[in-house]
Amino acid sequence: MARVVHPIEKRSYEILRARADTSALPPWTRAVVERVIHASADLGYADDLVCTEEDLAAGARALRDGVPVVADSAMTAAGITAREVVCRIDDRRAAALTRVLGITRAAAGIRVAGGEVGPGAVWVVGTAPSALEDLLARGPAPALVIGLPVGFVGAVEAKRALRESGLPAVTNKGEKGGAAVAAAALNALLYGDPLEANEEPSQAPGRAPLRGIPGGDDQPPALFPGAPPARPSALPSGAPPARRPAREADK
Q: Which residue, 51, 83, 78, is CA-closest to 64?
């Protein structure tokens, strides 16, 4: 995606790279790790994030193909400015589900959005662990799940369940997270490396033009139509050197 990189952003990345060596990371992993650190000023994410290059590359391709992007909250959606975002937390149907089922508004919004977008979407959860829990229970068959909810209640458990699900994902192991870092992980797959702004789109990750995403209002009402349930799968293990983020497994 063509964008003008502000000098402050450029300088911020230069400082970041002076403090954390990310040069050995594959391109998409580096883009996600650096943009999350840039959004939070928290170098600890270099050792806390969990993702794989294959999942990130597939997610970036899906975004270029125009798949829907779904967010759990208005705060998460607000951080994603380059794409239309489906967020149904304020939908009257979500309010009704909350009253009838006693679930959180964020979880209800996830259910409503699931009925609109179906399988193959990119899901971005940065606020509510309950939204991530409900998403996993529905079996969304996603292109990618960015699961970085923050909190002392349920966040660690929800993120552990995401890692154990075998779904393509970006997440972390600890309690920290939030709307800003979840949106940052998504934006990294759209923008790529801001210090490579002069490269051709084919050379810099995330710089290919994006097509508009399909509208959601005319989608079938069924929740996650045709999507198989998520099944736990064994993930490869192995801890990377310090400051080499995005471990591919967590025991």
A: 83
Q: How far apart are CA 21 and CA 17, in angstroms?
A: 6
Q: In whole angstroms, what is the distance from residue 61 CA to residue 206 CA?
A: 8
Q: In the annotation, is 6 catalytic?
A: no
Q: Which domains are delineated in the chain?
A: 7-196 (3.40.50.10230)
Query: Is the distance from CB of 223 to CB of 114 less than 8 angstroms?
Result: yes
User: What is the C-alpha separation between 57 and 23, in angstroms, rounded?
Assistant: 18
pTM assigned to the model:
0.77
Among residues 27, 30, 35, 38, the one annotated as catalytic is 38
Sheet of 169-172: strands edge to edge? Answer: 49-50, 169-172, 144-147, 122-125, 69-71
pLDDT in tens, 161-204: 999 999 999 999 999 999 999 999 999 999 988 888 544 333 33
